[in-house]
């Protein structure tokens, strides 16, 4: 796995924000411009709208409404492209998307800079996995007409259809230490996908949702909704937890469905693991959304309410449209505050988030910690000069400060370390070692309400080793059955020490809230 396509993670017309934000505040009539500038709040990949340019991609997170009390926001904020330290291996640019993938051009940034840039395809370091399998199998699969990419579907279908009967084998006949220790074959530069799938497979609540077939109750089986992605994902998880640990599973049928949902993943080009995660969670959510008929978006004024109550009201409004097991697990709520430096007026906005993209702090000496990155993410910024918003009370553009806090912590917190930055000449990767807690990660410092439950335990890490020119994804996961850590390197699964989990390759961290 080497260079990847990076896409700004902002989707206009998002199912997660287009109506949710309309409940935000009556203080800002120019709501459309605000929505176009939101970062990382939602992923409406299913709509596949054009991405717009980022106003603050260097922070990789949502920005608050910049016109405090209405009026036109600074044009420079909505139209001026800026550099990003985003998620993609080519920099995660807020305004650039490399179009070597066969995905339609509608997935590209609308910014003029997003012209197609031809990238040479490099083999994943793990591409040898395919050669190894061919040699070991002596082409036996190929001779049967299925090839190395033969589907796990027949086995997965058996597991799915007879899971109730096979449950005894899942729970009794197999050693508990072997459950879930199944590798995934690399189909060709798909280590990014395998890494994320292993992390999700070891997400206990999501795993149980699939193993117990609970997802079947939530499938939106109507004429307008395709549920194949959720069904294949569940089959794959079931297969991974009911197969012998010595067998590697081919995720080819799952790949077929994810690329139908998100055509940017068609073929065998290199991709970014965090982007893949966002598309996948979005697709799964859409197919098990408990809301089948969304209410009409009506404007409600919550600005007279205290912030705590306002946040709860807006969260309830969000759930009226987006309510699924995926939301139950992965979605939290951010509070964005803007304060006018002249009159002191404070405007607050509450927005959902699926993950937090953290800039990596720079230190002249000493190690960088995850808490340093969180503090940089939430630090108070000053909007001045061309960035000054218009204050409704002052009726003029004023210098102001903006601040982010977490209003609602999710059950599963996904933290993305922004290691890839894009310069004018070349893309670079930050190999900074970020020290992170594996137990008792206390994030109450960043909560809007310090009494919030915000203590987390690490259970999975998606790693990227190498450079922007050539690299590979793996996963480190704590098995929820035996509490031991394992390295998942495509088809190979090996035990590891917990002391080895922290490394400079850590890219996406998966935390579970304590007490669940």
Fold and architecture overview:
The chain has 516 residues and is of the alpha+beta class. It has a domain at 190-288. It is 26% helix and 18% strand. Helix 7 (191-201) packs across helix 12 (273-287). The model is unreliable at 1-128 and 130-177 (pLDDT under 50).
Largest sheet: 8 strands, mixed
Give the termini distance in whole angstroms.
35 Å
Radius of gyration in whole Å, from Cα?
23 Å
| Nearest-integer average pLDDT | 73
Q: Looking at the structure, what is the overall shape? A: globular
What are the salient characteristics of this protein?
alpha+beta; eight-stranded mixed sheet; 15 helices; 26% helix
Structure, briefly:
The chain contains 15 helices and 18 strands.
Topology:
Layout: H1 31-36, H2 75-79, H3 128-137, H4 140-143, H5 153-161, H6 163-173, H7 191-201, H8 204-211, H9 215-218, H10 228-242, H11 252-261, H12 273-287, H13 307-319, H14 325-330, E1 332-340, E2 346-353, E3 356-359, E4 368-369, H15 370-378, E5 381-383, E6 390-391, E7 396-397, E8 400-408, E9 412-418, E10 420-422, E11 427-429, E12 434-435, E13 441-442, E14 455-466, E15 471-478, E16 485-489, E17 492-496, E18 506-513
Parallel strand pairs: 3-9, 4-12
Antiparallel strand pairs: 1-2, 1-8, 5-8, 6-7, 9-18, 10-11, 13-14, 14-15, 14-18, 15-16, 16-17
GO molecular function, one term: cysteine-type deubiquitinase activity
Biased composition (Polar residues): 1-31, 141-160
Biased composition (Low complexity): 45-55
């Amino acid at each position: 796995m080497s260079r990847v396509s990076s896409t700004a993670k902002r989707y206009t017309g998002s199912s997660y924000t287009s109506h949710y934000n309309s409940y935000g505040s009556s203080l800002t009539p120019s709501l459309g411009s605000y929505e176009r500038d939101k970062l990382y709040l939602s992923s409406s990949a299913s709509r596949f709208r054009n991405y717009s340019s980022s106003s603050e991609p260097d922070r990789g997170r949502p920005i608050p409404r910049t016109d405090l009390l209405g009026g036109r926001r600074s044009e420079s904020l909505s139209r001026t492209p800026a550099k990003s330290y985003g998620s993609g291996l080519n920099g995660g640019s807020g305004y650039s998307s490399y179009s070597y993938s066969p995905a339609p051009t509608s997935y590209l940034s609308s910014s003029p800079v997003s012209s197609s840039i031809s990238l040479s395809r490099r083999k994943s370091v793990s591409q040898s996995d395919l050669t190894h399998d061919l040699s070991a199998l002596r082409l036996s699969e190929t001779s049967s007409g299925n090839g190395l990419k033969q589907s796990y579907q027949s086995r997965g279908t058996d597991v799915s259809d007879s899971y109730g009967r096979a449950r005894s084998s899942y729970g009794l006949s197999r050693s508990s230490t072997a459950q879930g220790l199944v590798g995934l074959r690399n189909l060709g530069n798909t280590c990014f996908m395998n890494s994320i799938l292993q992390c999700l497979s070891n997400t206990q609540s999501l795993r149980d949702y699939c193993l117990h077939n609970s997802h079947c109750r939530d499938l939106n089986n109507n004429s307008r909704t395709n549920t194949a992605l959720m069904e294949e994902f569940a089959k794959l998880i079931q297969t991974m937890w009911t197969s012998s640990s010595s067998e590697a599973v081919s995720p080819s049928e799952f790949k077929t469905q994810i690329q139908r949902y998100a055509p940017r993943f068609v073929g065998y080009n290199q991709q970014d693991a965090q982007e893949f995660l966002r598309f996948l969670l979005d697709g799964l959510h859409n197919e098990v959304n408990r809301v089948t008929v969304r209410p009409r978006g009506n404007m409600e004024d919550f600005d007279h309410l205290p912030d705590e109550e306002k946040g709860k009201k807006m969260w309830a409004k969000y759930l009226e449209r987006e309510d699924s097991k995926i939301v139950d697990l992965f979605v939290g709520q951010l509070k964005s505050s803007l304060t006018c430096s002249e009159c002191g007026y404070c405007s607050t906005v509450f927005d959902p988030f699926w993950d937090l993209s953290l800039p990596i702090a720079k230190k002249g000496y000493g190690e960088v910690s995850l808490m340093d990155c969180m503090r940089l993410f939430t630090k108070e910024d000053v909007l001045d000069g061309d960035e000054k918003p218009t204050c409704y009370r002052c009726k003029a553009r004023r210098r102001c400060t903006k601040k982010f806090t977490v209003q609602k912590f999710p059950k599963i917190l996904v933290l993305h370390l922004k290691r890839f930055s894009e310069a004018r000449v070349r893309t670079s990767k930050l190999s900074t070692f970020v020290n992170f807690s594996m137990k008792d990660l206390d994030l109450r410092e960043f909560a809007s309400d310090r009494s919030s439950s915000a203590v987390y335990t690490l259970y999975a890490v998606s790693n990227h080793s190498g450079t922007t020119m050539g690299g590979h994804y793996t996963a480190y996961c704590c098995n929820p059955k035996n509490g031991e850590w394992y390295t998942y390197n495509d088809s190979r699964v090996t035990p590891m020490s917990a002391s080895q989990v922290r490394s400079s390759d850590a890219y996406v961290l998966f935390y579970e809230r304590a007490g669940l």
